[in-house]
Amino acid sequence: MSVPRIRITPLASGGSGVPLLLGPSLGTRVARVWEGAVPFLAEDHPVFGWDLPGHGVSPAVTSGFTVDEIASGVLAAADDAGVSRFAAAGVSLGGIVSLALALAAPSRVVSVAMVCSLPKIGQPETWVERAAQVRASGTPSLVQGSAQRWFAPGFIEESPTVASPLLTDLMDIDDESYALCVDALGANDQRPRVRELAMPFTIVAGALDPIIPLPDAEAAVASARAGALHVIADASHLAAVEKPAEVAAAVLSEVPA
């Protein structure tokens, strides 16, 4: 295993509040998946985003890594960008990495928000199958299934200029990097460590998300010292895309002033 090289992008200069450090979901670019929410987040905060290996601006990789090693790469990139103390928020795998950041660097992370994410997502065998599919057929083979999981019924038809670029981005992601991210996701289980968090811990869930069961989100929040759950109506797995204002408000509700 090795620490992947992660790159951070400034997304908005914002106000004088604590910086926000945003992470993307598996198969997306951070600038795209948070695009609609950034104007709301940036009213009082500078906003930065990081990309997963082989996604967006982060270079492709060929060696395996863990979620904790992604977090180490993000912290190194934050150092390079001069971001020393921040609120962490991420979508799906980006949320899991945000939790890992809070556990690895509690003096630097003032709050953590997992958007459409959990300390453990799915079962290992599901992720083994996903990685094998991508290695055999590439990320374009995921487009149809991702469209069904990512968006609530009717969203693609109602907002094609928002949804279609995300699906195009998915096809452009490096296949092996994606598969290695899936391997890391399948091996991850941070549920026992949520109780260690001293900072505010938030889960933002889409009411229609087939990947994140609400009872699991409730259990994760209940295990935290300072946990909060926000459920976004009529949203699926990419709630930050479908309901950006609502997701931004939920993320900011737990960020210290």
Keywords:
alpha/beta, Rossmann fold
Task: Provide a quick synopsis of the model.
The chain has 257 residues and is an alpha/beta fold.
* Overall 3D shape: globular
**Segments where pLDDT lies below 50 for 5+ residues?**
none
Total individual domains: 1
* H-E order: EEHHEHEHEHHHHHEHEHH
The beta-strand count equals: 7
- CATH architecture type: 3-Layer(aba) Sandwich
Annotated CATH homologous superfamily: Alpha/Beta hydrolase fold, catalytic domain
Largest sheet: 7 strands, mixed
CATH class: Alpha Beta
Describe the 3D structure.
The chain has helices at residues 30-33, 38-41, 67-81, 93-104, 124-137, 143-150, 155-158, 160-172, 175-187, 214-222, 239-242, 244-252; strands spanning 8-12, 20-23, 47-50, 86-91, 109-115, 201-206, 227-232. The protein is an alpha/beta fold. The protein has a single domain, classed as Rossmann fold, CATH 3.40.50. The protein has a 7-stranded mixed beta sheet, sandwiched between helices. Strand 4, helix 4 and strand 5 form a beta-alpha-beta unit.
Write the layout of secondary structure elements.
Layout: E1 8-12, E2 20-23, H1 30-33, H2 38-41, E3 47-50, H3 67-81, E4 86-91, H4 93-104, E5 109-115, H5 124-137, H6 143-150, H7 155-158, H8 160-172, H9 175-187, E6 201-206, H10 214-222, E7 227-232, H11 239-242, H12 244-252
Parallel strand pairs: 2-3, 2-4, 4-5, 5-6, 6-7
Antiparallel strand pairs: 1-3
